[in-house]
Amino acid sequence: MPDITLPRDDEERRLFGVYEASSAKEHSAASKLLNPNHSFSRPAYMKLLGDLRAIRTECNEDMLAIAAHHREKERQVDIPIRAVSPAHSPAHNS
Question: What is the pLDDT of residues 18-57, one digit of tens each?
Fold first, then answer.
């Protein structure tokens, strides 16, 4: 089956919005870690490092939710195509 890009539905737009927000938090935390100011204490640095790990996990989970939603949309489109496709009919497979 050819690769078909389906338009984004409301749920996918919502999921991308959530992902973009967590991605912005991730970039901000990473930037603070990569460019710390001179008064950054070790405990503050370690806390931010832990926060970044949690944010990255959240960001990854958000992307996985988008992928799962996309697969579900593709599956819903594939079912009707298979139902009417002559290649999937019992007479064709005999």
Answer: 999 999 999 999 999 998 877 888 899 999 999 999 999 9
Q: Give the rounded distance of the alpha carbon of 70 from its chain centre.
A: 9
Average pLDDT of the residues of the chain: 83
Q: Which of 8, 6, 29, 7 is nearest to 17 (CA)?
A: 8
Separation CA 47–CA 25 (nearest Å): 15
Sign of CA dihedral 55, 62, 64, 26: negative
The pair of three-digit structure tokens given for residue 35, joined into one six-digit string: 């460019």
Where do the structural domains in the chain lie, given as residue ranges? 12-81
Q: List, in order, residues 6 or more apart from 71 with CB less than 8 Å away.
A: none
CA atoms of 82 and 75, how far apart (whole Å): 10
- pTM, full prediction: 0.68
Contacts of 25 (CB under 8 A, 6+ apart): 55, 58, 59
